[in-house]
Design goal:
Blueprint lengths: L8 E9 L13 E9 L2 E5 L3 E4 L3 E10 L5 E8 L7 E9 L27 E12 L5 E13 L13 E5 L4 E5 L5
Antiparallel strand pairs: 1-5, 2-3, 2-4, 2-6, 6-7, 8-9, 10-11
């Protein structure tokens, strides 16, 4: 960057509609849906709720400057539930490098199923040491030392990332769990 020159990225999105959403399992069958726009896992926009529809029309525009680097621009369709946590119906995730393909194009995307494993992001760099220890009674035991060296690409939620690691060692007779301090 040259001195005095500020480079920024922005995105403008038109959220049109969703079609043929799966029916609600209850007697009503209809859903009260809204859509969120996320940079990685940080929500940056939410549409209004469209009530009692399996083909909600949103017709909303969204514009924002992008304050940081990101990997995925994602859209989540939720079903609002007044008694429990809102449930995710599906998502569309677009890699940052693929966004140019959709510039000024009206495109339909297939919703993808969402599960906890598909939402995990980032990498962790670990150091593991397994050693044998002989006790006073001559029994050989194994000792595992684990060190978290660094993490990369972790999601930023509400503008911050407060990571910690949990290490769980499951043996035949017991399970032991240790948690690191939160890194600010």
């Amino acid at each position: 960057e040259e001195e005095g020159l500020r480079v920024f990225q922005s995105v403008r999105i038109k959220i049109g509609e969703a079609k043929n959403l799966p029916t609600y399992p209850g007697p009503n069958k209809m859903r009260d849906c809204y859509c969120t726009v996320n940079l990685d896992q940080e929500e940056v926009f939410r549409t209004k709720i469209v009530e009692k529809s399996l083909c909600p029309f949103y017709g909303e525009d969204f514009y924002c400057e992008i304050p940081r680097s990101f990997r995925h621009l994602s859209f989540y369709i939720f079903d609002r539930d007044v008694f429990r946590r809102d449930s995710i119906i599906g998502k569309v995730a677009i890699l940052k490098e693929d966004l140019q393909k959709y510039h000024n194009r009206d495109t339909w995307f297939q919703l993808q199923h969402v599960d906890a494993d598909s939402e995990v992001q980032g990498k962790v760099h670990l150091e593991l040491r397994l050693s044998e220890v002989i006790t006073d009674t001559g029994v050989i035991c194994h000792k595992l030392a684990t060190r978290v060296l660094e993490c990369q690409g972790l999601p930023i939620v509400n503008g911050q990332c407060d990571p910690y690691a949990t290490v769980t060692l499951a043996g035949p007779y017991r399970t032991k769990e240790k948690k690191t301090k939160v890194k600010k």
